[in-house]
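Cross-posted from the bioinformatics board.
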Amino acid sequence: QTVEHGFPHQPSALGYSSFLRLMAIGTRSGAIKLYGAPGVEFMGLHEENNTVMQIHFIPDQCQLVTLLDDNSLHLWSLKQHSGASELQEEHRFTLKGPPGSPPSATQITAVLPHSSRELLYLGTESGNIFVVELPSFRVLEDRTITSEAVLQRVPEDYCNRRLCELVEALREHPKNPDQILIGYSRGLIVLWDLQNNKVTHHFLGSQQLENLYWQRDGSKFVSCHYDGSYTQWPVSSDNRQPEPLENLVPYGPFPCKAISKIYWQTTKNGLPYVIFQGGMPRASYGDRHSISVVHGSQQTAFDFTSRVIDFFIIFSSEPTAEFDDPSAMVVLAEEELVVIDLKTAGWPAVHPPYLASLHCSAITCSHHVSNIPLKLWERIISAGSKQNIHYSNMPWPIDGGSNIAPDPPQRDLLLTGHEDGTVRFWDASGVCLHLLYKLSTVRVFLTDADPNDNMNTLGEDEWPPLRKVGTFDPYSDDPRLGIQKIYLCKYSGYLAVAGTAGQVLVMELNDEDAEHVVDHAEADLLQDQEGYRWKGHEKLKTREGPVRFEAGFQPFVLVQCQPPAVVTSLALHSEWKLVAFGTSHGFGLFDHQQKRLVFVKCTLHPSDQLALEGPLSRVKSLKKSLRQSFRRIRRSRVSSRKRRGGSGNASEVQEANAKFDQDALQEMELAPVQRKIEARSAEDSFTGFVRTLYFADTFLRDSSRHCPSLWAGTNGGTVYAFCLRVPPAERRVDEPVRAEQAKEIQLMHRAPVVGILVLDGRSTPLPEPLEVAHDLSKSPDMQGSHQLLVVSEEQFKVFTLPKVSSKLKLKLTALEGCRVRKVMVANFGSCKTDDYSENDLAVLTNLGDIQIISLPFLKLQIRYPCIRKEDVSGIASCVFTKYGQGFYLISPSEFERFSLSTKWLVEPRCVVDMPEVTSNNDEHKSGVENAVRKS
Amino acid sequence: QFGAEFRRFSLDRYKPGKFEDFYKLILHIHHIANLEVMIGYADVHGDLLPINNDDNFFKAVSSAHPLLRVFIQRQDEVDYSNFGTNTLSRKKKALVTLRNDNLRRRPHINISMPHDFRPVSSIIDVDILPETHRRVRLYRHGCEKPLGFYIRDGTSVRVTPHGLEKVPGIFISRMVPGGLAESTGLLAVNDEVLEVNGIEVAGKTLDQVTDMMIANSHNLIITVKPANQRNNIIRSSRMSGSSGQSTDSTASHHSLPTSHVLQNFHPDEMESDEEADIVIEGGLEPQHIPKLHSLTSSSLSRINGSSLSHRLQRDLVLNNNSGRESNGNIHKLLSSLKTDPRHSLVIPRGGIEEDGTVITL
């Protein structure tokens, strides 16, 4: 396992160091990830797996402190180790109060790393502020700031109403490190002098406090409040208890939601940037996740697609600079990271080089293509760049550290299919997975959603001035649009995409916008089978007439399977210009040159009613089982009530409840998980489900003549082989492609066929279509005898060709009790010499193990655990690359990359050097943005 | 005259009388008084069942509606395999799924002729296993009877160097009535499963063991520790010493006629007869269909065969071939009736008429 791509699942905290120019994200599962310049990534995991609540970088250090929800503090450091930096946990600490004190006494609510780098101020729920020394986490008891000490000189009538307040915010004075501003939740704010251990200023706020922010020169600060207001306070030596300068409810006058965080940034031109989170009118916009930016007369409320976890502003941190001059705003929302360029007019978003939201629509499938030719790569990038014109040109503002990993050896593409009918093309060559191009298949079809309904077409005088940002959109207009299978030919640029409602689209790369009609063909996979009724969804309606497509992959033909069941397998042969597709009913072959259906084959077993009816019947059975379990619960409740009888005092009720619990437990014990042991039979459901399709030029009929062939494997352990006659190139347009069934193999063990492969005379897998034509592969050996490898969920079997007699087998399930989930031929190169490489099978089992099995002798080479076996979606999402790497989803939004190869390894390798610290920096720098306690 | 002569006669449904009288009546009607014959009848499910005592005679008569179809066979030609539950339906499936059916099929349920047994299970490796364990092999051959059992997780107590220890184990949780596992009598609910085809299950999850068993379902060998240890095989050397245990080797309910004990049976011995994948060449229809077709049509023609040539042919078969085949004829006749619902024995109401010695349907 090498690196995680995508957006962290359930982020919970954000931190930023303007000193290191690194950003840190904590998650609810206790992971902490650091990001800097593209390629600079670090990851750490708290042993406790608890939610990370706050992250604070220690000023001018390569260190950070995290606070977890179990109230423990952790100190992490970036240390250099054999040339590369590593993130390590150094210390952990839990604040302990005096014996007998309530847990709230030490519950940490605010953390301030002092610019002296040696002290950490910890505000707690009790109102006390503890001081600990770094890095030892030793509590300096004599320096504790108790709430009693603070309240001493507060006016009597004010403090009477506000006892026992928790510390909401701690802020160090930007110019004077001996002064810290303490904000209590009920509204009291005091300026504390660390030298003399006393309060110097009192600010008597009347509203519940959310957060504080110092202005750059230290003459004023801003407080923001629960009622959606913010207040400016002056700090001067002559008035120890000043009145607020200004109190504003930006989205008043109606009740507003809290403003949970605020920035007040000065600029050269005098107009400040006021940036605050929340504050929307409660009734009409209370559900929006917004951050407002106000700069003079410009005001925009950025409306995020998911809850805002936290945000920070990147501004000039040079202590000598007079103004903040903010350049960018970085917002961590629950489902994506959004960066807004504050320097360019219109405040456009910045295209992030990493942390891409893979799941902006749920990922339904993925496909990996290794070693993309440069030409195709450039064409995809140019198509993608036309889509990205609305992004800012600003270079990525978070640029700490330097990437020292070698350049990726080749260009790899990862294609993900999504529920909303889009295919996204990701650059998967290196550590940063970033979006190159997005393809939508929606235009071909008529859907309910009007593509012109744009959320951004709000009028000028609209209030509040909301603007939608971000790409996360989990709501699919029509689940039938979902992409199920993708096949890209990297040499020809042909792309086949198949979806949930039996649609198969063949596309071609076009560098220009174009308007054309998509040809439409129907494939009736049931043929003349009678008496079947499809109860599933209907096919998608197609758009009549020519459709305008933007530059990129443009569909030119649509094959619609009937019944419109999910396409379960897809194969494209760009040299023969054929596309094969399969569903749970059968499979078909389509000639996309002549736009003609070559043949269809129904694989359905006559008794398989389930496959026919479509997904609906399964829903029914789920309903039924739910109903049954409810009934059971009700029954046992009734019986316990009966037993209770008429007299119902409390103890009896309790007894009855206990009895009920016991009964329920017993029932669970009486009906333990059990598994039926039954041989597979021809009558099982979904035996006709086509699992795999494969094109091969091999010896199907006799050993003297080879011919193109199409192979299909089903869930019931049947392999069909069709002999194809593809006319030579000069007559390709006129003569039809012909197909004839040549073989049908029924595996006796009837396990689903997951892979079919033909090995040539040298026992090398046949090359991909056009691979030989592009001189990228030796032409296959057509002299020696070919072999057929059939991989079922239970066995690997090698047969001779053309006679199909069993030659060799590996009974994986019988030996180990695991079943094959994914299989792919991988080429393993030696890391020592360039001239040695071998082909093996990379296999993922249902237990999440990865095994390497040698070819052609089917010997198990190595096995190691990779994915947890409970992680069904992880196992289902796994894709192998051609060179022994792989990806799987560790959460809906993150791919984990792993490598089985010693030669091809993509992992972050980067250095973070300590920027030089000048001595006068020490005095006046609050290099750290304090993250805020979550409201 | 066997297989060729059909007679119709009536009996009092409510007072059928004794079997002996019926037997004599049959012999009389068919003028075969000097022969030993076996009388059978087709029950409502189309199964061929014997009539050889008062009880089953009464049952046969009472189940007739309205016609009781009685089959008479020479005693020495009787193929007992045709008797029993689901005989016909099972045979029918076997014909559909297996090509070399004749080689594999052996008659079953035969009390007096052990060599005709078709094993459905065996205890093997008795000499190398501890007495408390039992290694059972379930033969599925062509038979389409479900294996029919369920397994579950549980805990088992093991003797370890540190004393007794609780360890997770896999147990048989349920038997499907009429399934192969139940019919062997060698497996029972709560037996602990120790091995599947020689691979230990210790450390494997329920799902893994399930997959292993299914992967081996064509030739499943499971080693169990029976929950009921009283029926274990006691080796002769220890026999004298054991007092509380039964010396009756496969005692009581375990000594069902379908099971027998094989010693020194190595799991790999029968590897060769397992799974042969079926390869169908060319665009042919699957081969079993024509086969079934020819079979059905020929046997149908036998029923309808009023032509002399057919009858002659049948007589030839009867005269020249062994008894097994003539029974096969009866069997085929029945199965052919079963294959087409219109010809089912259950609905002949008025569809059958007597035409001398031949019934036309």
